[in-house]
Design a protein that fits this description.
334 residues, alpha/beta, 8% strand, globular
């Protein structure tokens, strides 16, 4: 061996050769840290919250309505947010409805937290329409302005949990208006860490700040007492489009106003849309016998109230309009 020969440094990947050695090491460390962070987040993603676990099961939940085990069964998909999770007991609603229609009946629920119609629209479009599934009816459970035209406030979750390539035209039309929003959507569709960083933050705050969860609930109560902006333009173009898509598949649409402690009036535009589209609109006053003491935070029902409301709702819906081939009695109203 020639003692004067110099050692040849190990070659670096081609995509790092343009960087000086020190910067290349820093970049490699950062990328490695991000990769480890992403793998760690994916390993615990479903345990981070019950809501994430529910989001990951959307396809499986909707697919149950098309399974061979429930052939010749009347099927309904109930869609809403945490008001549905806490306010409509699935088994109670199923049993009461089955007794009403005197036929086998199956129901499933989608209830992602803190969402409104923007997110529900994509969940229905992707997991029902795009997958060519056909429940007999979809029940949209709302309160206040949940069904109004408004862009999604959860762009970080749209790409990972709600949307596929088929939803890109609607995303461009309704929700993603800026380059920043498109970048956020694309990155979050690939990364669990980016998608759920706010959930991790809230969980940390709840652990370290006394009464943080109670404070959030108080903000919910105050937001319900605020008067809506009189200058706000109220429209329901996206809801109208979904109803048309469902009608083309012969899937009925039912709108259910769920009661809360301090409800807001139904928009006249929504009432007119229900008339024009000939769909069933069930008002809270048609169903609910609840009192202010039946709500845990002004919005969500306690367990006893939810059980009672689930029975009342199932009895109040005019199932003759949903299942016209069945010979059914008149609905029971209060």
């Amino acid at each position: 061996m020639n003692p004067t020969a110099t050692s040849i440094p190990p070659s670096r990947p081609p995509w790092l050769r343009w960087l000086p050695p020190t910067e290349a090491k820093v970049l490699g460390f950062v990328l490695g840290t991000l990769l480890v962070s992403e793998l760690a987040m994916r390993s615990v993603e479903s345990r981070l919250s019950l809501d994430i676990k529910h989001l990951q099961q959307f396809e499986k939940i909707v697919a149950r309505l098309d399974s061979q085990e429930i052939e010749n069964t009347q099927t309904v998909l109930v869609v809403g947010n945490s008001l549905v999770r806490e306010g409509i007991r699935q088994e109670t609603f199923r049993k009461t409805t089955a007794n009403q229609i005197r036929s086998p009946f199956a129901v499933e629920r989608l209830h992602p937290d803190s969402t409104a119609f923007a997110e529900w629209y994509y969940a229905i479009d992707r997991f029902v329409l795009t997958e060519h599934r056909s429940p007999n009816a979809i029940v949209l459970v709302f309160q206040g302005g949940h069904l109004r035209d408004a862009p999604s406030h959860h762009v970080n979750e749209l790409g990972r949990y709600y949307c596929g390539p088929e939803q890109l035209p609607d995303l461009a039309r309704f929700d993603l208006r800026t380059l920043e929003q498109w970048l956020q959507f694309c990155l979050c569709s690939l990364s669990s860490s980016l998608t759920n960083h706010d959930r991790v933050e809230r969980r940390a705050l709840n652990s370290f700040i006394p009464n943080y969860r109670d404070g959030i609930q108080e903000l919910n109560r105050r937001s319900q007492r605020q008067n809506p902006n009189a200058d706000e333009v109220v429209s329901y173009h996206r809801l109208s489009k979904l109803i048309q898509l469902l009608q083309a598949r012969q899937i009925a649409t039912v709108l259910v106003e769920i009661p809360i402690q301090n409800p807001t009036p139904i928009d006249p535009e929504l009432e007119q849309l229900a008339i024009d589209k000939d769909i069933l609109l069930v008002r809270a006053t048609q169903v609910s016998t609840l009192t202010p003491h039946d709500f845990t935070d002004g919005l969500h029902m306690n367990a006893t109230a939810a059980e009672r409301y689930s029975q009342e709702l199932a009895n109040a819906i005019d199932w003759r309009r949903i299942f016209p081939t069945l010979s059914l009695p008149l609905p029971i109203t209060n």
